[in-house]
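Problem: given the chain below (504 residues), write out its structure.
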Amino acid sequence: RRAVRRRTAVRDRACAQHKIKVDVINMSYGEATAFPARGRFHKLAEELLFEHDVVFVSSAGNSGPALFTAGAPGATEPTIIGIGAYVSDAMMRAQYSLDENVKGADTYTWSSRGPSSDGGPGPCVCAPGGAITCVPRWTLSKLQLMNGTSMSSPNAAGCIAVAFSVSAQRGARVPGTVVRRALESSASRIAGVDPFAQGCGLLQVPALVDALDFYAAEEDARYFYTVSVEESGGRGILVSSADVLSDTDVTRNVSVQLKCARDIDANVHYAIEKRIFLTCDEDWVHAPRSLQLMRGGRVFPVRVSVAALEHGVHSTVIRLQDANTRRLVCLVPVTVLVAENSPRTTSPEAAPRALSWESEIALAPHGIERHFLRIPASAFAMDIHLRVLGEHRDSAQSRILSVHCVQRDFARHFSAGELHLRWRATGAAEIFRRHAVTPGRLIEVTMANVFVPPLLLTTISERTRGRRHAHRVHDGTCSPLLWTSWDSAPHSLLHRNTQVEAAC
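Solution.
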């Protein structure tokens, strides 16, 4: 009932903004979704953009650091500009009073990451996500330290409004349909920063003004380019080693279509014709070098060489650029997930019946490390046991570690099956958790060090016996994750745990 009231309120407020002739709307809220780019609000946002040039800017979410945590509607709607949260080294020192050397500009570890569940890019760009700012009077405080993508989103909305004002002073009317193109082409990519969190980079107002003026003068200014993959219906190419063979190539057909307002003259439709160059920085993605794009759109094949990739996450974009101006038309995101234990078959029965994975992880300040593993075919639970190693065990300084496990599953949003811990590790601290998982699917295990000194972690292996899952620690072993079967029936539980112990 509460969700229904919220959706109704969002719809009513969006309609009210149109009535008072608003150009830019900021929405600092969001939630997880299993069905991106669908629903009543999706259609409403399209109508307001195409028919009334109303630009929606929204927070990407604060559910990181794992991938696939982009929130709706900000990072899951093509017509809404999703904003990630950026933090500079100066912000770290001034706002968080850090007295140690930090590595420089970055995105917050909790800023939601793309891609979205349909392969979409997630956040479009990023903006400063923290400030010591004014707060309501009822807090009895004049200023307060605030952070979140709810801070970066209004920052970006204000920057876009400033760019609109500059264009208006120059006598130009900027259609809302060109804003995403202008942002993607003018943002400044931050070297060494997670591409899933920063999108196309940090928003730059002067470059955005120039890009808006250029795109507003183009013949296709009132058109919005959409990308979809015909096999999945998603907004990007997403390949997982749990779904395809790890030693084969994957081919996907990508469709580029043009959407526009209903009042566009037929002669304008007739005149639309662009010669497009396609470029990609990675040699494991193979796409045509050029294509001719007309009003009816085009479909072209993209081949991804999965066999050439090591385990982990690999991402890139295919840039579609105007052959005459070399300006960006649209982007096709490509993401490949390769598990560290990828088998040569996609059959769930072929996955290992038990798995013990071990790793020693050293996390620098603000560092993030990801691991992708395939769940065994008969496993229903995952055990995690972490401890601090080395000289850090004797330190009395407190450290904050974010442990985030997300399993991408069809027709289910990420928060339905996630494990997200914020662990304050002090000295010889240890932590143990058991988490339910889906057999045969890929899971991401992400660890992040949040504004703290370097941290060295390992885990202790354990085995389960009996119905009450008593845990026994074995000295000298080092195994961060051990999957065991989990069933409600006592005889089935004991039988499957026997298989797991035999396989270890």
